[in-house]
Design goal:
heterodimer; A: mainly beta; 4-stranded antiparallel beta sheet; globular; B: mainly beta; 7-stranded mixed beta sheet; 11 strands
Chain lengths: ~110, ~120
């Protein structure tokens, strides 16, 4: 089982704000990174570090962290944001990488 | 820009060894700034980290797969390889290679290959 837990699904009205959370003990010591995965495609990094976005990622995506929880926020959700999101970080031992269980976002 | 491309057989028989190659273009696997990871995703399921390798050859594997996994690097040909032995149907998945950015407490797979589907079946 994954050491990073995400809600299986969240929904948001078009243009509104949604927060996707990732919980795990390792997040007290390491930053999470966030990935967007469209059907049939490889994941794409959207947020890493404290709140860094790779080139080309819209600024409606932002990240934050508090205690054992990391969050990805989509401000002004668009129809194309209706895909799967995964967090990743170190595991609790700090020795290995681990992915969250994934969250499917539905834009209403 | 840096691109990663996985290649290898799409069908492997049970109990045999899965072998995949990831060719890196537009950059060097010998860059000390990055690790290089393999990640897989069974159909309809989530992502699972398999392991990484550094240009020096040092490796780190997922404990759940460690006894069956070997990752190697060929710096002269700018590619990395994955071998997974004694495969079963549970190893059926899309396999990705990814560049693994590590900066202190920051970890991110910043570039991914397109992935290659491997089916384990007789």
């Amino acid at each position: 089982s994954s050491e990073l837990t995400q809600d299986p699904a969240v929904s948001v009205a078009l243009g509104q704000t949604v927060r996707i959370t990732c919980q795990g003990d390792s997040l007290r010591n390491y930053y999470a990174s966030w990935y967007q995965q469209k059907p049939g495609q490889a994941p794409v990094l959207v947020i890493y570090g404290k709140n860094d976005r790779p080139s080309g990622i819209p600024d409606r995506f932002s990240g934050s962290s508090s205690g054992n929880t990391a969050s990805l926020t989509i401000t002004g959700a668009q129809a194309e944001d209706e895909v799967d999101y995964y967090c990743s970080s170190r595991d609790s031992s700090g020795n290995h990488r681990v992915f969250g269980t994934g969250t499917k976002v539905t834009v209403l | 820009q840096v691109q990663l491309q996985e290649s290898g057989p799409g069908l492997v028989k049970p109990s045999e060894t899965l072998s995949l190659t990831c060719t890196v273009s537009g950059g060097s696997v010998s860059s000390g700034s990055y690790y290089w990871s393999w990640i897989r995703q069974p159909p309809g399921k989530g992502l699972e980290w398999i392991g990484y390798i550094y240009y020096s050859g040092s490796t780190n594997y997922n404990p759940s797969l460690k006894s069956r996994v070997t990752i190697s690097i060929d710096t002269s040909n700018n590619r990395l390889s994955l071998k997974l032995s004694s495969v079963t149907a549970a190893d059926t998945a899309v396999y990705y290679c990814a560049r693994d950015l590590v900066r202190g407490v920051i970890y991110a797979f910043d570039i991914w290959g397109q992935g290659t589907m491997v089916t384990v079946s007789s």
